[in-house]
Design a protein that fits this description.
Number of helices: 9
Oligomer: single chain
Radius of gyration: 20 Å
Helix content: 25-40%
Number of strands: 9
Strand order of the largest sheet: 5-6-4-7-8-9
Strand content: 5-15%
Distance between the termini: 36 Å
Shape: globular
């Protein structure tokens, strides 16, 4: 995203330069359940200027007939990312070929996507067959929609089936690096998190942890301990992969806190502890994955 302009105001969009079938991503609309008048007016302006509009909201811009008319008149498109026309099966739990790694967390927004992407890149550099498998709209945008699911837009009965579809049979030495969502201990997001764990049937699990997190996102609940997170994930993964296990801890740290990383490495000697902020700290985990045979 180094070459993409990031704009946090509604004007002037024309400072970006004349649109050449450019697409504006409405990242700030992420949690919208409905659009305000200002939202709609903003999108109408973008469409009128000749921009495609991609929305990450739960609500659908394409349900607004006025916006659809403006888009048609200006020969541009509206993309509702959370409304992809995909039908998923109910999960069956059958074993699939190839290896899988899933990042899980003690909360939402604690480094799962960044950890997955960094591990994927380092595995490729180490000569390991690897595919990043996103499970949210941001990851799919990063992945240029080559593959992925949007976990929080799928009906509950089909969540584990969607996770199975995300990482199908593959070469025996191939690794799917699957972006986790939420936490199985989060009172709001636990259902989607557990379905990903069961449907992904991971061989290896990385627990992502933000030491500065006080309450779980959007709640007054305290995160459970790292030990309890490990115990629960190791328990539930056994339903579809008896050998699945948490083998590493990814700590979300500011760039200058390398000493704090050493603290967690000493605190959890049975885990490979690293931080994606310090890619060199991931080398041991990459070697472990490369040599893993199940």
């Amino acid at each position: 995203f180094d070459n993409l302009p990031v704009i946090n105001t509604t004007e002037p969009f024309w400072s970006v330069g004349p649109p050449k079938r450019s697409t504006v991503v409405l990242a700030a609309f992420n949690l919208r359940k409905e659009f305000t008048y200002d939202d709609t007016a903003f999108v109408a302006t973008l469409l009128g200027l000749g921009f495609n509009v991609l929305s990450c909201a739960h609500a659908r811009l394409s349900d607004n007939k006025s916006l659809v008319r403006i888009a048609t008149e200006n020969h541009v498109q509206i993309f509702d990312v959370r409304s992809l026309p995909v039908q998923y099966p109910v999960g069956n739990g059958l074993k699939r070929s190839g290896f899988r790694l899933l990042t899980v967390g003690h909360d939402a927004n604690c480094g799962k996507k960044y950890t997955s992407l960094t591990l994927h890149r380092k595995l490729l550099e180490a000569g390991v067959k690897s595919t990043f498998r996103p499970t949210g709209q941001t990851g799919m945008l990063i992945n240029d929609f080559e593959c992925g699911i949007i976990n929080d837009s799928i009906k509950a009965d089909f969540l584990s089936g969607a996770a199975e579809s995300l990482s199908p049979d593959n070469d025996p030495d191939h690794w799917d690096i699957i972006e986790g969502q939420g936490s199985i201990w989060h009172p709001g997001f636990c259902g989607g998190s557990l379905s990903l764990l069961v449907g992904s049937q991971p061989d290896l699990i990385v627990l992502c942890f933000d030491p500065k997190r006080i309450y779980q996102r959007g709640t007054t609940f305290l995160p459970v301990s790292i030990e309890e997170e490990i115990r629960a994930n190791n328990l539930f993964v056994k339903r579809t992969n008896p050998k699945g296990q948490v083998f590493a801890l990814s700590v979300k740290l500011p760039d200058e806190d390398v000493d704090l990383l050493s603290h967690y490495q000493a605190l959890y000697p049975d885990l490979l502890v690293f931080s994606p902020n310090f890619p060199f700290s991931m080398d041991e985990a990459v070697s472990f994955i490369k040599d893993y045979r199940g």
